[in-house]
Write a structure and sequence with these properties.
Helices cover 26% and strands 23% of the residues. The protein contains 3 helices and 8 strands. The chain has helices at residues 2-18, 39-48, 59-68; strands at 23-25, 28-32, 52-53, 73-78, 87-88, 114-117, 126-129, 136-142. Strands 1, 2, 3, 4, 5, 6, 7 and 8 form an 8-stranded mixed beta sheet that branches. The relative contact order is 0.24. Keywords: Disulfide bond, Lectin.
Length: 145
């Protein structure tokens, strides 16, 4: 039993060493960028890190992501495939949302197909924005221990 615990601890340490700049919360690690990129380039950065843009699955996760994000931060939600049909980067449909009042709205008829956290101080903080705008982003990597 002690040998198993020691092996598990060493495996956990190896996994944690991969994530030097990452924040841990409930079975996922989150990387908060310090530079800005478009939504597609942000997603590519996450994919290169073995992750993807964050998928918010619960109110707890929304709070965690919101309070760790800075102003205007990309998340992994888009309607690029079908206008008005919001999907996460893993292909699942949006079921629970935290839109700012009046959002999503394709403001001034702009093609706003990607989602950002616009105001991290508010519980309802999501805004749709053009995917070409450069913003910070948050990657998520789920790890089974």
């Amino acid at each position: 039993m002690i040998k198993n615990l020691t092996e598990e601890r060493e495996e956990l340490k190896r996994k944690l060493n991969i994530f030097g700049e990452w924040v841990y919360f409930k079975h996922s690690f989150y990387y908060i960028s310090s530079t800005t990129k478009s939504w597609p380039n942000s997603r590519n950065d996450c994919l290169q890190r073995g992750a993807d843009l964050v998928i918010i699955n619960s109110k707890e996760e929304q709070v965690c992501v919101r309070v760790t994000s800075l102003w205007r931060t990309w998340i992994g939600l888009t309607d690029r495939e079908t206008e008005g049909t919001w999907r996460w980067v893993d292909g699942t449909f949006l079921s629970t949302s935290y839109w700012i009042t009046g959002e999503p709205n394709s403001y001034e008829d702009k093609n706003e197909d990607c989602v950002e956290i616009r105001n991290p101080e508010s519980e309802d903080s999501w805004n749709d924005a053009p995917c070409t705008y450069e913003k910070l982003w948050i990657c998520e990597k789920t790890v089974a221990f």
